[in-house]
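quick q for whoever's on today - can somebody do inverse folding on this one?? i tried earlier but teh output was garbage lol. C-alpha cells:
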C-alpha cells in the first residue's frame, strides 16, 4: 500500500479530493484544509490533477514518520538567498544573483562560487549584516509549524545551510531548530574581508551532517526527512528516506522523492501523515 498525498496552499477541496480518490480507487483521509492523503495500491494516472495548483506526491506506507528533519535555509526555510540580499547593500547584487542562479542549477561548483561571491563584498561594514537580517529576512509559510511539530513529536531538527552562520543561527532560533550549521564570514576591523572560513560547508558537508546526526540520534538515513531547493542539496535529499524538493531548481527536482510547487512547508507534515490536530 502507498499514499497519494495532495497538498496546496490554497486548499484542497472535497470535490478534487473525491475525484482523485475515485481515480486511484483508494481510501480518503483529510489531514487539514490544505492536505489530504489517499491510501491505495494500484497505479496513479500520469496526468492526475494536471493543470491544477495542487501538488501530487506518492509516498510509501512504511516508515512515514521521520526521526530527523534536516533542512536547507535559503529559498527553503526563508524566501530569499541571504548572500544576494547582502550583495544588494554592496551594490553588486546583479553580479552575485547571476552566480547564485548558476550554482543552484548545478552549473557551477558551490565552493568556488561562494568564494567568488563573498569576494565581491569585501569592505562591507559588519553592521550591514544586522540591517540585512532585520529588513530582508522573513520565514516561509509553514516553516515554524513544520519544525516545532517535528520537535513536539520527538524528532531531531537541524538547519544545515551553505549560507552564513550569522543568518542561520538567528533563523534557527526563530523557527525552533535544535541545531544549525553554516559558513562563517571573516570580519576584521568591523568590515567583511571578502573571505569565508575554510573548509566551506557545501553539498558534501550537508551529507556528512546527515550521517553524523543519524549516528547521534540512533537512526538510519531511511528515517530522515531532508528538504532543500537547489543543486547544493542533492546529496542529502538523495540520501534521505524522504527527500523533498521545495520550489526547486530542476537539478534537485530530478532526484527528489517529492516535489512541492504549490504548497507551504506544512506539506512536509502531510507527507508523513501528520494531521493538523497534531501540530505544535
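ok took a stab at it. sequence:
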Amino acid at each position: 500500500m502507498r499514499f497519494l498525498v495532495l497538498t496546496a496552499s490554497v486548499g484542497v477541496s472535497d470535490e478534487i479530493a473525491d475525484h482523485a480518490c475515485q481515480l486511484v480507487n483508494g481510501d480518503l483521509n483529510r489531514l487539514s484544509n490544505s492536505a489530504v492523503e489517499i491510501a491505495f495500491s494500484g497505479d496513479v494516472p500520469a496526468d492526475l490533477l494536471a493543470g491544477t495548483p495542487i501538488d501530487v506526491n506518492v509516498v510509501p506506507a512504511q516508515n512515514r514518520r521521520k526521526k530527523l528533519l534536516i533542512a536547507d535555509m535559503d529559498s527553503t526555510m526563508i524566501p530569499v538567498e541571504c548572500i544576494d540580499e547582502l550583495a544588494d547593500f554592496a551594490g553588486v547584487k546583479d553580479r552575485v544573483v547571476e552566480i547564485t542562479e548558476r550554482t543552484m542549477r548545478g552549473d557551477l561548483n558551490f565552493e568556488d562560487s561562494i568564494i567568488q561571491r563573498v569576494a565581491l563584498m569585501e569592505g562591507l561594514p559588519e553592521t550591514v549584516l544586522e540591517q540585512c537580517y532585520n529588513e530582508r529576512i522573513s520565514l516561509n509559510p509553514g516553516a515554524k509549524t513544520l519544525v516545532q511539530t517535528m520537535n513536539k513529536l520527538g524528532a531531531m531538527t537541524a538547519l544545515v545551510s551553505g549560507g552564513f552562520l550569522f543568518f542561520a543561527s538567528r533563523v534557527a532560533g526563530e523557527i525552533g531548530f535544535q541545531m544549525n550549521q553554516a559558513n562563517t564570514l571573516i570580519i576584521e576591523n568591523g568590515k567583511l574581508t571578502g573571505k569565508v572560513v575554510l573548509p566551506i560547508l557545501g553539498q558534501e558537508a550537508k551529507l556528512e551532517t546527515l550521517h553524523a546526526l543519524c549516528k547521534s540520534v540512533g537512526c538510519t538515513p531511511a528515517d530522515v526527512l531532508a528538504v532543500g531547493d537547489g543543486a547544493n542539496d542533492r546529496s542529502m535529499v538523495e540520501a534521505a528516506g524522504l527527500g523533498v524538493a521545495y520550489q526547486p531548481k530542476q537539478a534537485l527536482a530530478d532526484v527528489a522523492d517529492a516535489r512541492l510547487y504549490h504548497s507551504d512547508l506544512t506539506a512536509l507534515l502531510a507527507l508523513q501523515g501528520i494531521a493538523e490536530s497534531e501540530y505544535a
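fwiw Residues 103 and 110 are 6 Å apart (CA to CA). also The first strand starts at residue 2 and ends at 7. so keep that in mind when u check it
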